[in-house]
User: What shape does this take?
Amino acid sequence: MSTVAWITARGLFGRRRFLLLLPLPVLLVVLAVLSRGLGVAPSDWGPPVLVGLGLAVVLPVVALIVGTGVLGAEIDDGTVVHVLTTPLPRWQIVLPKLAVAAGVTAATVAAPLFAAGLLADSVRLGLALAVAASAGALAYSALFVAASLLTRRPVLLGLVYVLIWEGLLSNVLAGSRVFSIQHYVIALADRLAPTELLHTTVSMPLAAVMIALVSIGFSLLAIDRLRAFSVAGETS
Amino acid sequence: MPEPTGVIHDIGYQRYTGLRLGRRQVFGALYLHGVRTVFGLGRSAKAKIFPWLVVGIVGMVAAAVTAIRTQIGEVVMTYAQFADAMSWLVIFFVAVAAPELVSRDLRSGVLPLYFSRPLPRADYPLAKLLALVTGLWLLLGAPQLVMFLGGAFTADGMRGVWDELLDLLPGLLYAGLWAVIFASVGLLIASLTGKRAFAAGGIVAVFLMTTPIVGVLSILPSQTANQLAGVASPPTLVQGVGLWAMRDLLITDQDGVGPDLGPFGPVYALVAVALVAACVALLLARYRKVAAR
Assistant: This one.
């Protein structure tokens, strides 16, 4: 584990506010256990819990908070300069941070999704959701790490994507789902474990290709932006 | 030892002898500044991007609804339904505005400067809250006014205009309910952290994670749980109060079934009042603690 990754992980876990991330996954498991325990049919509680809460809220919001936290927080308080002045190539700064962000997000989201999928249908669905969510975590993290280098307000930009693009437009315009990470994850999970619980209009090969493209493309963009990074004081 | 030769020169410092404005003026200034901050007025172009993006989208929807109504004659949504349809944008707007109002002051540690004025502890958060409520109400109310103008100019005679106005007023009241509940919850969360980024994330997380709880509660095999499900999430809570108070304005579709409240309509109203009261109380408690530092 490189030093940058170590520092980043400590920066994430060393703060009390990391605990704020826990209620979301816990809520996911609690709702799944509650529904299962009270004997509601999985076809009724599966879509709102697995997709409505798990893939549409927990995954993007955790990825947003962690993804903008690994680099955006350092840029915000100016300590990124200490890392930038070391003789490290910029990709050795971006990639470990991205790996930590994706790893933390995947661990936080995949475990409760596995439990919820297991309760809803089978071990296979649980594993499929966990794998798909991990792939999604990588794509989301790349997107949000790049966003924190493109703008000074990365969280708001990320929220525009999560709320307005994925939340509003994907429901109204089915065509915009082709550019929605949430639907790639659903397509991936549905392919790995075909059930009646997950529905999307995006095809599986397209989803796999787009997840890879988004992850690699935004990582390269982040590295490129960090090469031309200009240190400036806080504006407005 | 020589005698001291120093002289004190009068360089013209004067005491302020003019009128000193009191608490009300401080409150008013804070409120006005808050409303301007919500929309990024008086700040750089960067601070205006996100608030005006939301205002632009909401305005576009209102314009489209108005155009469809005047051209085709089909009422896409009533004034009251407009607020419901915009709920995600309202959440985003709160996530943009609330951290701007309170988190920046916490971060830069200027609160002691505010409280060195004739300003009671409670006035600062209340002025900010009032500013956010006003901002949200304007966000939801102004497009309804656009829709009203479109409807009024196509209505036949004064009678039609009067009917439109009677539809608009409950819509504006309903928008006010949205504004009060979302502003009090959002401002409370934002006041917990000095980092705008975390405040925005926290607000969105709280609002979004409560929605699926409603989804699960409403399919549990217990009718009471189903009918009380809406209480668990701010948007459905507001909707429940609206359905209880003015059902015919929210559900216009004849065979459209809204959420079934059963006999619990007044419970929704009580919970809404209790939620706002609790949020304001916690906000005041929070500022008693912060101001003491």
